[in-house]
Design brief:
Blueprint (H helix, E strand, L loop, with lengths): L9 E2 L46 E10 L2 E5 L5 E6 L2 E2 L19 H22 L3 E5 L13 E7 L2 E2 H7 L4 E2 L8 H13 L27 E7 L14 E6 L5 E2 L4 E3 L5 E3 L4 E2 L4 E5 L9 E3 L13 E5 L5 E6 L1
Parallel strand pairs: 4-7, 16-17
Antiparallel strand pairs: 1-10, 2-3, 2-6, 3-4, 5-9, 6-7, 7-8, 10-11, 11-16, 12-15, 13-14, 13-18, 18-19
């Protein structure tokens, strides 16, 4: 699961994401000011407010981020559940996207591939802001408490802001208006503003315009490859960190010195290799947790899961800071 700890994916074949990075307008990363008229601090540059924060909120811990709109939680008493964020729908990462569901996105292979890249971006966005955090959940009086797959349908409040709404204002999600919820009109106004500004997934209206200056895949001339990733540890990812790992292999003809090379995820968590050499045909496994390093096993020493089970990007840079390998799954 991923710290979401991160991850539930055993993927020995790493699939390339259809889009490179999504260039976000600076305004969407700024923190809106909270005022008496805007208690949730949701408004930014002309975007309407989500309104007062919902009442009847319950405090929970986020144990995993499945994707941009689905998380796993744990109550204070140890009970666990899965939450589908009410009112929003982020693009799929592990399934095909139907561009027709996203107004204006062309129903072409390019449109679908672009949405998948946006889905990975949304998963990373949620992971970076929710994973391992203590948040609040609340229900909408017009919505059933549980939906498909018996998941809770709820709002998520973090840092006194409505995260469901934030996904819409930043362009990470469309409004899921197939079912009723009381804030639908506000959400639709925010979606319209994000679409007009071509934020996030709405750049896919013109998929050829999406910034691919940072390629999704860069293969090192040395032959370094990602041979496998196990992102979803058994049980709670944060409690089983060494069941989350990435396998690197040298498919080249020469030895690779990994000393000083770094590995990062989409949220810029960083691991740096110590003295290490990988001969042709050899592999090294990087575990998220702690342990004693060997030639074939390295330990990140992280205090929480790293790899997102809903999709993530593995980036390797050499000691000079040059990107030599990038893989999305």
């Amino acid at each position: 699961m991923r710290r979401l700890p991160f991850a539930a994916l055993l993927a020995l074949t790493v699939v390339l994401a259809g889009c490179g990075g999504f260039t976000m307008p600076a305004e969407q990363t700024a923190t809106p000011q909270r005022t008496a008229a805007n208690p949730g601090g949701e408004t930014a540059a002309g975007v309407p407010s989500a309104g007062p924060l919902p009442e009847g909120r319950t405090t929970v811990s986020v144990t995993a981020v499945v994707d941009g709109d689905t998380i796993r939680i744990e109550y204070d008493n140890g009970t666990r559940d899965t939450v589908r964020l009410v009112g929003v729908d982020t693009p799929e990462v592990n399934a095909e996207n139907d561009p027709a569901e996203f107004e204006g996105v062309p129903t072409t292979a390019a449109g679908s591939e672009c949405l998948r890249g946006a889905g990975i971006d949304a998963s990373n966005f949620a992971k970076n802001r929710l994973l391992g955090e203590t948040v609040e959940i609340a229900f909408d009086p017009a919505t059933e408490r549980r939906g498909y797959y018996d998941r809770l349908l709820a709002y998520v409040v973090v840092d006194d802001r409505l995260f469901n709404y934030r996904l819409v204002t930043t362009g990470h999600a469309r409004v899921y208006d197939e079912s009723p919820f009381t804030r639908k009109d506000r959400f639709l106004e925010a979606e319209s503003a994000a679409r007009e500004a071509r934020k996030g997934l709405w750049q896919c209206v013109d998929p050829d315009s999406v910034d691919r200056s940072t390629p999704t895949v860069t293969v090192s001339e040395s032959g370094l490859v990602v041979a496998g990733i196990h992102a979803d540890a058994e049980g709670n990812d944060n409690e089983n960190l060494n069941d989350e790992y990435v396998v690197f292999a040298n498919r080249g003809d020469d030895s690779i010195s990994l000393s000083g090379w770094t590995v990062t995820d989409g949220a810029d968590h960083r691991y740096t290799f110590g003295e290490s050499t990988l001969a042709p045909g050899e592999r090294v496994t990087l575990y998220t947790g702690s342990g004693s390093d060997t030639e074939r096993e390295r330990y990140w020493g992280a205090n929480g899961a790293v790899w997102n089970n809903g999709g993530d990007t593995i980036t390797v840079q050499n000691a000079d800071g040059t990107v030599v390998l990038e893989r999305s799954y």
